[in-house]
Design goal:
This protein has 151 residues and is of the alpha/beta class. It has one domain: HUPs (Rossmann fold, 3-Layer(aba) Sandwich), CATH 3.40.50.620. Strands 3-2-1-4-5 form a five-stranded parallel β-sheet, sandwiched between helices. Helix 4 links the parallel strand 4 and strand 5. Helix 1 runs parallel beside helix 5. The longest helix has 28 residues. It starts with a strand and ends with a helix.
Length: 151
């Protein structure tokens, strides 16, 4: 079974990557894994405040993943595997890929305008040569019809 890993955040390009991965999974009888990344919080001298901030950040990421999974299922896709991970994005994605050798492709979205984000820049640059799977970079300017045609 083909497994497509999508990094989910609140950007439009993440939604484009999600739609592409969902269409590919549907056409290949595959599966989608969704990961939300949350940054490591700056140390706060007030532990209770820091714990509250971390809890709220995790809850927001879980809500984002739940909504994304709901959108997939509403379109007839299988329930995706979802995970919230904390830390540096590049390191977290690398660790996830090591833990999940079944992942067939890392699907990232590129912004419709401007330069690439840190994950796209890393995994299509010097970091590409050490990956165990291909990287799909989905342009953020693609329409739903384009995604359907290309997936």
């Amino acid at each position: 079974m083909r497994v497509y890993l999508v990094i989910i955040d609140e950007t439009d390009e993440a939604l484009v990557a999600l739609r592409f991965a969902a269409r590919r999974a549907a056409k290949t009888d595959g599966h989608v894994h969704l990961v939300a990344l949350i940054p490591k919080q700056q140390f706060s001298a007030f532990a209770a405040v820091q714990a509250t901030i971390e809890e709220e950040t995790r809850a927001r990421a879980e809500t984002l993943l739940t909504a994304a999974a709901g959108n997939l299922m509403a379109e007839g896709a299988k329930m995706p595997e979802i995970s919230v991970r904390q830390g540096d994005g590049v390191k977290v994605v690398r660790e996830y890929l090591k833990e999940h050798p079944e992942v067939s492709a890392l699907v990232l979205g590129a912004a419709a305008e401007g330069g690439p984000g840190p994950l796209v820049a890393h995994f299509t640059g010097s970091g590409a040569s050490t990956l165990a799977c291909p990287v799909f970079v989905i342009p953020g300017s693609l329409s739903s019809e384009d995604i359907e045609r290309l997936s």
